[in-house]
Amino acid sequence: MSVAELPPEATLIDVREQDEWDAGHAPGAVHIPLGELPDRLGDLPEADALYLVCRSGGRSSRAAAFLNANGWEAINVSGGMRSWHAEGKQLIGERAGSAAEVL
Fold it and tell me: Which InterPro entries does the record match to this protein (predicted)?
């Protein structure tokens, strides 16, 4: 699913690493790095569907496949945070003013 198609109430799971998250992330997103996902399934919010995002879509695609195989409805956000930024969506974080660090 593209960033433009995301429903307003989407539950966003950001699977990027801590430094990427700190550089800027979507408001309301839940941060669970891809490598920690299998051990943090209990940290996933209850939602009809989870929307997975990373920098460009590769890691979030793997995370969505893993979650779908384990009983969740998970949807990859194509283009990731690069597309998020290109769509002019808000970023928050310690260094959110520097889009170059996010991308």
Answer: GlpE_sulfurtransferase, Rhodanese-like_dom, Rhodanese-like_dom_sf
